[in-house]
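User: As part of a screening pipeline, I want to sanity-check one entry by hand. Below is the sequence and the SMILES for fe (ii) ion. Please return the complex as structure tokens so I can compare it with the automated output.
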Amino acid sequence: MTVAQPLPTEPLRAEHRALLSQLGELERVAGELLTLPPDVARARLRRLIAFLRHHLLPHALAEEKVLYRAVEAAMSAPGAMATMSADHSEIQRRIEALDAATGPASALSSVPAMLYGLSAIVLLHFRKEDEVLLPILDQALSHEDAMQLFQQMAAEAGESSEEQPSAPA
Ligand SMILES: [Fe+2]
Ligand SMILES: [Fe+2]
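Assistant: Here is the complex for your manual check:
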């Protein structure tokens, strides 16, 4: 009996699954936010924004520097990943807007809609990566090539995560 080999991109798929399980918090917070005492609501939002800044954005930056270039090379299509990078810019813009909307002086009434909007964009973006981009790399890369790519991504993500100012506890 032969055992199915994991796909070359399995490490990145696993990273996506781990991020997605945390990203469920966007919709959970959106649904509960306005029922919570304001201090509790703000603390939960701060934790969520810190996760987005320190985990999701470094992941996105590493993709732009390493993964998307590899997909463009595999497709012989320079610039083809510009639409995916545009998703990242929109995600980053919305995280900044979310941060601005959770300051001590602001009412939180608009925040649930922002969280639902961000969640929808992020979920669609992950789906495009898992279902469209990663299969291209599964065809094009050996396991060794893919492993090297993910090591480069981890190094990039580690660096950009260290550059981010640390979030308040
Ligand atoms: Fe991405
Ligand atoms: Fe991703």
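Points to compare against the pipeline: The chain has a mean pLDDT of 93. The chain is about 80% helix and 0% strand.
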